[in-house]
Amino acid sequence: MYVAVKGGEAAIANAHRLLAHVRRGDPAVPELGLEQIAEQLALAVDRVMTEGSLYDRELAALALKQARGDLVEAVFLLRACRTTLPRFGHSAPLDTGRMAVRRRISATYKDLPGGQVLGPTFDYTHRLLDFTLAAGLPPPPPAEAPAEPDAPMPRVTDLLADESLIEPSPPEQPGAPVGDLTREPVSYPTGRDTRLQALARGDEGFVLALGYSTQRGYGRTHPFVGEIRAGAVMLEFVPEELGFPVPLGRIALTECQMVTQFKGSGERPPQFTRGYGLAFGGCERKAMAMALVDRSLRARELGEEATAPAQDEEFVLAHCDSLQATGFVEHLKLPHHVDFQAELELVRRLRAEHAARQAATPPMLQEAAE
Amino acid sequence: MTAMSTRGFARLASGAAGTNFGYLDEQTKRMIRRAILKAVAIPGYQVPFASREMPMPYGWGTGGVQVTAAVLGPADVLKVIDQGSDDTTNAVSIRQFFARTSGIATTTSTAAASVIQTRHRIPEHRLKEGQVLVYQVPIPEPLRFLEPRETETRRMHALSEYGLMHVKLYEDIARHGHIATTYAYPVQVAGRYVMDPSPTPKFDNPKMDDCPALQLFGAGRERRIYAVPPYTRVRSLEFEDHPFTVQRFDRPCALCGAADTYLDEVVTDDRGGRIFVCSDTDHCEERRAAGHRGEAA
Amino acid sequence: MTPLLSARGLTKLYPGGRGCREVSLELDAGEVLAVVGESGSGKSTLLSLLATELAADAGRIDYRLRDGTVRDLLVLGEAERRLLLRTDWGFIRQDATQGLRMAVSAGGNVGERLMAVGARHYGNIREAARDWLERVEIAPARMDDSPRGFSGGMRQRLQIARNLVTQPRLVLMDEPTSGLDVSVQARLLDLIRGLVAELGLAVVIVTHDLAVARLLSHRILVMKDGRVIESGLTDQVLDDPAAPYTQLLVSSVLAA
Q1: Mind listing the pLDDT tens digit for each residue in C22-58?
Q2: How does DSSP classify residue B247?
Q3: A302: nearest CA in chain C?
Q4: Lower CB count within 10 Å: N or C terminus of chain C?
């Protein structure tokens, strides 16, 4: 006698117990602490915070540990946690001009006020595996420079804006609503605020590939890195009942401003245009790619012909989110046997009809038809 | 103990009990209920809603789960099915999720449930007034594979430009002699909006028509909710000279002997042996409890 | 009698200055108007503006509906405008892959407009499709084939059938014969000329080929740098061009 499958409940529970066991690995190896992850896998934590839309190093470290180092899974955990948090409002606009800068480079000027500051970067390292690191040897202490706490470090785009060589930053609109795609459904065409949010949350690999595609001619924008700056910025919030900004603390950010070409139109004189990228922590690659794609997505606004994928707002926004993508790809693992049954029945019927037609056709005609 | 882990333990202490009834906060539920009300008011129209990121993956029922969470009350009795069965892993997982986050009663009986969340099937048992059937929807847009752009498909709906749907059916008939769409077969609701019934087999389409229960559809990843209010006309698209027909199986269920249900094909050995059994496991069990027997029982 | 179509001051400029400036034209029922010029002269922009596929920076397009009322297409509601475009208008594109649904059979391509206006009888739709395929000289046996397997000339003829099945009064054509062999061109032009006369179609045809303009059109517009520089009866303009640029165009054809 046939008995239908049962016991999904026990199977799921057992699978999760096994997962917990495998996650821990060999118990003879010391367990990872969250502080170790937050300190020593800092860029993974930064990426999980950026794509997870939640600035919390501890939770991001926990997510990474729980996800066994799978970044997309860690982003997932952080986002699910974020959903349960109340949203009080939005911060006052960040002033990255007042950033406590740890790294600041410009590709458009050899030297500029505040100077070029390399900071902690992989750039110019020779990518050789470092076996002293494998041996656990401590690094030499960092070099020090005299502190210049009040040295101004203006943004490169502000220098260009003084001459009107670059389009002005969009004017601040106090009181205007700020798009939030986690609270309002996106409808196309959407605003630049929502686009930037989507790109910041977007999968680094996807945004990187799109940015790269613009460099290879699919929506070319002739970009220059006006400036990349990374460091800590004060976050301020204006509680309605107080009416003035209250500092909430500092967050680490990387900002990239791309300076791109624009030929001008009937109404607008030729002028450089901007592409903007911003990410938590040290996600520099992400900030750069985001700035490229942001600029490409402005094609329509700037009256440019939009033909490339990176210029297609609906395509980019609908596909950049790693959770949406991974969920829908992975849902193919779920049982689909009901639909498959319907297709089986159809294919069998079509094959039978085909065979019947073949049988009904005299052999002579069959040959002629071939 | 460091500051960091102290904070962690504080969170641990608040634990799972810290989440609201049905997981979502009340503000979110109100937002979803507003979308549901709008959907009920405009049958078949896809209402955009601010889908939340749920603790389960997109494509695994996040839309259905949010709709269910928004309509569940403490007195509700929930049934969850996937492929018609209460025992498939995803159905079990979602049922556990609600049992854990809301503490409400769950059931596998269609008749006993007040809310039924489903993926890919409509129960065989005729639904009754007061019941809510919540569908999990992967791609809510019936025009999506004819026209990939949201901006364009919304315009097509607004202007009732549905000719393209019939072109697809025309092509089926021209090629195969009959319509070859077997699941997610498009329907027109209340004479206006063309709607995707979710990937249910077209066998289930007639159950949607004039149904006494409220039918709600949630698409989490695509952020859409739509609805068919009770006793609403739901017509499967067809041509006058090629009317809509459903699948018929040429044998009854091997377990309960039912001849009018949708069947799963179960491969029993590697020599071509297979039997056909009801996909709706609850319905099959009820029939067997009532003494019905198929050839393999 | 008011003209069927009347455009006034149509302007659309792209960055860099290309486009179409202050173009006005009129078209009566049953009349064929050719728009000629080199590539970049703005003639294709003009056609896209007339088809309301491009938003004009300025101008208006008045069209006389079947009930005699005249409406500005640029302020017409979208539902009305789209219905008009798929029933009373046709658009034959240079690139047939843009004007056809390449994944849909020839019969489906012809039937689409009928289904779009509510035809729901498969047999009747098929009958109409068969009839139109015959009228454009495509064998009914090819009805269930994809246009991917069709030659360039067949694809253009299929586009014509697909557009004419709803019996439109106005058809826009964008270089319908370019890229085809000379003999195929001749056959297609012959077919178009026959259908235009038989159905009393009004046509705006954009072409760089003065021979096509001479064969099909009653009147002609010559465009250069986005502006109309000369217009009049086709034979008059081509035989006795007034503008130096038109003289150059005509003489270069003769020389070639």
Answers
A1: 999 999 999 999 999 988 899 999 999 999 988 899 9
A2: -
A3: C15
A4: C
Using alpha carbons, select from B265, B271, B275 the residue that is nearest to residue B297.
B275
Same domain, B138 and B256: no
CATH of residue B76 = 3.40.50.11310
User: Are B76 and B113 contained in the same domain?
Assistant: yes
A342/B254 touch (CB, cutoff 8 Å), yes or no: no
Interface test with B, best of C120, C121, C130 (most B CBs within 10 A): C120
Shared-domain flag, residues B16 and B102 = yes
The H or E element spanning position B7 is: helix B3-14
Contacts of B153 in chain A (CB under 8 A): none
Interface test with B, best of C85, C87, C104 (most B CBs within 10 A): C104
Q: Which residue's entry shows tokens 């799921």?
A: A12
Whole-angstrom Cα distance, residue B134 to residue A81?
25
Same domain, B206 and B293: no
Q: C147-156: b or e for each residue (b if 16 or more CB lie within 10 Å)?
A: beebebbbbb
With CA atoms as reference, the chain A residue closest to B54 would be A80
What ipTM was predicted for this assembly? 0.88
Q: What percent of chain B has pLDDT over 70?
A: 94
Domain match, B52 and B21 both: yes
Q: Show residues of chain B in contact with C111, CB under 8 Å.
A: 167, 170
User: Residues B72, B118: one domain?
Assistant: yes
DSSP-derived secondary structure letter, A169: P
B289 touches chain C (CB under 8 A): no
Q: B145 and chain C: CB distance < 8 Å anywhere?
A: no
B198 and B297 belong to one structural domain: no
One pLDDT digit (tens) per residue for chain A, 370 residues:
565 556 678 888 999 999 999 999 999 999 999 999 999 999 999 999 999 999 999 999 999 999 999 999 999 999 999 988 888 888 999 999 999 999 999 999 888 888 899 999 999 888 889 888 988 888 999 988 877 766 788 889 988 888 888 988 888 887 788 899 998 889 899 999 999 999 999 999 999 999 999 999 898 888 999 999 999 999 999 988 888 999 999 999 999 999 998 766 666 778 899 999 999 999 999 999 999 999 999 998 887 888 899 999 999 999 999 999 999 999 999 989 899 999 998 899 889 988 998 888 766 555 444 3
Considering the entire predicted model, what is its pTM?
0.82
If one counts the domains in chain B, the total is 2
CB contacts under 8 A, A 21-80 vs C, are: none
Q: What residue ranges do the domains of chain C occupy?
A: 1-88+172-256, 98-167
| Within a domain: B171 | no
Alpha-carbon distance A257 to A230, whole Å? 12
Residue A51's SS3 state is: helix
Instruction: Answer yes or no: do C122 and B159 touch at CB < 8 A.
Output: no
DSSP A69-85: T-HHHHHHHHHHHHHTS
Chain A CA closest to residue C15: A265
Chain A residue with minimal CA distance to C16?
A265
- At residue B41, does pLDDT exceed 50? yes
Q: Does C54 touch chain A (CB under 8 A)?
A: no
Q: How far apart are CA B144 and CA B153, in angstroms?
A: 7
Claim to verify: residue B82 and residue B33 sit in the same structural domain: yes
Domain that holds residue B290: 248-297
Q: Which residues of B are known catalytic residues?
A: 44, 253, 256, 278, 284
On whether the CB atoms of residues C19 and C48 are closer than 8 A, the answer is no
B148 belongs to a structural domain: no
CATH of domain C1-88+172-256: 3.40.50.300
Residues 201-220, chain B, touching C (beta carbon < 8 A) = none
